[in-house]
Amino acid sequence: MTGEPPTDQSRTDDLLYFDHAATAPRRPEVLDAMAPFLSGVVGNPTGSHRLARVARTALDDARDEVAALTGSLPGGVVFTGGGTESCNLAVFGVTADRTRRGKDARVCVSAIEHHAVLDAARRLARPLLSAPVAVVELAVTPAGVLDLDAAADVLRDGADLVSVMTANNEVGTVQPIPELAAIVRDVAPQAVLHTDAIAAAPWLDLAVAAEGADLVSICAHKLGGPVGVGALCSRREVALVPLVTGGGQERGRRAGTPDVAAAVGLAVALRLSADERAVAASLTAARRDHLAKLLAAGAEGLRLSVVDVPVLPGTCHVTVDGVSSEELVFLCDEAGLCVSAASSCSSGAATASHVLAAMGLGGGDDRGSLRLTLGAETTDDDVERAAAIVVAAVRRLRGAAR
Amino acid sequence: MLVAMSGGVDSSVAAALLVEAGHDVVGCTLKLWGGESDSGCCSAADVDDARRVAQVLGIAHHVFGLAEEFQSRVVEPYVAEHARGATPNPCVECNRSIKFDALTSRAARLGFDAVATGHHARVVHGPSGWELRRGADRAKDQSYVLGFLDEPSLSRVLFPVGAMTKAEVRDRAGSAGLRTALKPDSQEVCFIPRGGRRSFVGARTRLTAAAVVELSTGEQIGTIDAAQMVTVGQRRGIGHGPDGLPRFVARVDVEAATVVVGRREEVAITSLAIAPDTLRWSRARPRLDAPLLVQTSAHGAAVAARPADDGARLALDSPVRPVAPGQLAVLYDASDPDLVVGSATVAKPVLSFA
Questions:
Q1: Which pLDDT tens digit goes with each residue over B7-27?
Q2: Which of B97, B247, B286, B296 is the most exposed place for a label (fewest CB within 10 A)?
Q3: Closest Cβ–Cβ partner in B57, B59, B109 for A327
Q4: Does residue B231 surpass a pLDDT of 90?
Q5: Which comes out higher in pLDDT, residue A363 or A24?
Q6: Which of B224, B301, B112 is nearest to A330 (CA)?
């Protein structure tokens, strides 16, 4: 082809971005911090010369920063290729360590985990490892919060790995990780507790919200950092069998030349999020509450998916009777409002949500769902305009259905 | 305008032509099937191809998940029809229930005036309104699987490649740099792995054996191990009679576990029974007694016919192999043989000896 490549004719200026949980706006400060490691000679941090030492220092500074901000051990941070890899490493790495001497293992995951945990756990149930692995799902209440009593009953029968997210990526419910950690210590002290804190990290202090977890997964691009970098952070020494093997980098837990720029980007994004968290969280929660109020008042058949339990400040998840999620998202997109039907998904088609199913909220065509997620830069005016677009879309689709 | 892009070359070029003509075009790919065995139509690779073509054309692309509708309106009826010994036509059903019902309704709700697809057929505004005509490439013509479309539906659909030959379509895709230019045509029933109809149906309903019985004598001449997979008119796998001549299926009766067969001339029909209330004429229909051509399969021959008995049957000018009940019969104007003038559903065959 010659000349300018054509672009999607959809408007891309003046958009209302309400999909922060899919990926957050990139922070310019992050790019500035990464820039020295993105062009020219950048030493391989595993080398022995001075350029290697410069790179290694930047990498280890980033590691210490991430450790401090997540309440992890210095050196307990493994940089990975993203949130999915972090979760996969926790699930495979711990379980493979438990089974490598031929001992059966039992993995307990909540029913509302991200697929990065859920699919990894389900694969374990197949005979890929040297001993059988039982995978047990831990139920959630209709409000979308882990049922601690039910979890305690399951864990009493033994567990090698327990994985429960710090907050859910789809409906935003905050999970009782400190309480779960106390239960694990009490009834299944041999188990490793992993928490996927990817959705929570932009909004919650993980030292508090994920207190007691042994392993914490985070991801840079949800924080305004680059895509393609995450970390698995250990609060204590946890034996992990690596997913990626080779040169023994990252203390043998993730082989391959470390991406210094990406690690720096993750650390800076996490630091900036932490610095602005106290102010941003309360302002955003107020805007989210206002959005929820406008939607509930304006659109017939629309219901908030979660009430009366702690939810991430940026998340507003609703269901609408009698309309399809795909059609709602389409009309919002046409009107310049970027939202998701549920969580982001590879094929682009809205599929029935396992999270809503676990909460007893059926998906399907008779009830559409919509996830609007705000960021710190979302304004009151954005909220008003977004609400008007959703209300108009719901009215149109419900009108057309008659 | 919404264009349904399957990830194949025809719908890619359909989208390209609409963009070129200056329409405001949005592409969509239907995700109808998938799950564990992500093969056949609308696989992840097909969605990728459609998306890439949309990107190259500079149009928005969406994926519409209609798997539940496809399951309940195409796949389940397909299995149920086989289970009762009938012969389903899932391609017609998919066009009827999914593309030209679920999708067109959605398009209307979302504010689109029309839906375009890559079908090889032509919609023309003629003297009596919107008409459906055969595609210009007779070998690729798909007017049969669209024969049920009524005038209101035709007024809201476009088939931009219907006036082109397949070779022209591929050339066009090649010169536009679309990566689907050389993609092979889709084959057979899209949701069934190659050659696996029997195992697909067998996994969903119980297949039972039947006696193969001579039409003329009532004598059993053999057995067949899955009566549900036998089609009226079928010759393959039926074998020969005691006289050494090939046998053709005249009737399938799953409950009685019999498949009635006969020699070609014994089973041939000269009259096609029409299921009650299924005969539909378009406004393009010529005189009531004008000679017609009737086609009963996607790429079968069209044979001369005339309506008889007040539309209860079609009298055929020459004998043909029997047609399975439930098939769509599409009627063309004998004096303008590309023009679709009506359609009907075939009822139980009327045998020539009856």
A1: 999 999 999 999 999 999 999
A2: B286
A3: B109
A4: yes
A5: A24
A6: B112
**Tokens read off for A312:** 């991430």
**pLDDT per residue over A158-186, tens digit each?**
999 999 999 999 999 999 999 999 999 99
Computed over every residue of chain B, the mean pLDDT equals 90
Percent of chain A as helix, strand, coil, to the nearest 5: 40, 15, 45
Residues linked to residue A196 through DSSP beta bridges, in sequence order: A217
Taking the C-alpha atoms of residue B121 and residue B303, their distance in angstroms, rounded to an integer, is 19
Whether residue B109 and residue A365 make contact (CB cut-off 8 A), yes or no, is no
B63 interface with A at CB cutoff 8 Å: yes
Chain A / chain B CB contacts < 8 angstroms:
58
Q: For residue A22, which amino acid is it?
A: A
Q: What is the pLDDT of residue A3?
A: 44
Q: In what order do the strands lie in the sheet with B26-31?
A: B60-65, B26-31, B2-4, B115-116, B157-158
Q: How far apart are CA A173 and CA A293, in angstroms?
A: 18
Residues of A in contact with B69 (CB under 8 A): 365
Return the ∠ at Cα B159 (arms to B155 and B162), rounded to 5°. 130
Query: Computed from CA positions of residues B15, B17, B20, B23, in that sequence, does the dihedral angle turn out positive or negative?
Result: negative
**Whole-Å CA distances, B159 to A218, B93, B166:** 49, 18, 13
Q: Are A312 and A375 in contact (CB under 8 A)?
A: no
Cα separation, A369 vs A390, in Å, equals 12
Alpha carbon distance A326, A138 (integer Å): 30
* Distance separating alpha carbons of residues B13 and B162, to the nearest angstrom: 11
- Best interface-test mutation with B: which of A10, A324, A326 has the largest number of B CBs within 10 A? A326
* C-beta separation of B81 from B88 below 8 A: yes
Q: Is the pLDDT reported for residue B351 higher than 50?
A: no
